[in-house]
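Practice set, problem 2.
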Amino acid sequence: MSLAAGDEVAVRRVLDDYLELWNRCDAKACAELYDRTGDLLAVDGTFLRSHAQIRQYYDDNLSGKYAGFQARRLEVLGVRQVGAEVALLDAIWEVHAPSASDAPSEPIAKPIGSFVLVKSNDTWKISAARLMVPLKVSQ
């Protein structure tokens, strides 16, 4: 099932906004992209079941271990409607460690995520996010 063109643009914009806010370490604004009943399985394996937990997670980590990291090169792998006013977005992006120079660094990780978004009052919010970093196994 395909989303209406305007809804697909709006759903994609939520993820663009998320990465932009993450890059600015804006914990409050990142959390506000989530529906009040949303949940998050973070890239580090932390499972958060409430808006308050999500906000605390971003407060702790964007000012802590992820401070100064940058998300770049977002690639949306797909967007589709899965129900009335419910969409699924899959994406991959790069994460770069803080750098003293302006030269682009190699990415330290390439997270992939699935985001369930719900539309309420003409606004799309993240209802559930599942993030992970693919395991690299040498043979």
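Problem 2, part (b): a different protein.
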Amino acid sequence: MYKHILIPTDGSQLAAEGISRAIALAKALSAEVTGITVTAPSQVFADTKRTTAMAEKYLGQIKDAAAAAGVRCRVIHAEHERPYQAIIDTAKKNSCDLIVMASHGRRGVSALVLGSETVKVLTHSSLPVLVYR
């Protein structure tokens, strides 16, 4: 089945719930995980120390959950203007065969106007994407 799962996070509570579900799935499948958080280059330029600290905190949630479950894990802090593209590129580069991410579950005009990263990953990825809402 799936052997390498990519787990994107933005540090939100919803993403934390998605992490929990993704780690449980990885454990059940004996898969490894790669966690990713994406920062816009302009954020890094504005405050490198703060951006790095926040990325470490977000990725720490994935590392801690994986360690507690006994799941092999590595993490990546990427810089990209388009987070969805960084997620897709990272999945391909690291031979991930599934992306598991959270979504707020917005519908209709709200979803179109807000253009969530989850929707963009679903639209542009050739890999399977499991969405937790």
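Answer key, part (b): Residues 48-69 form the longest helix (22 residues). The chain has one domain: 4-132.
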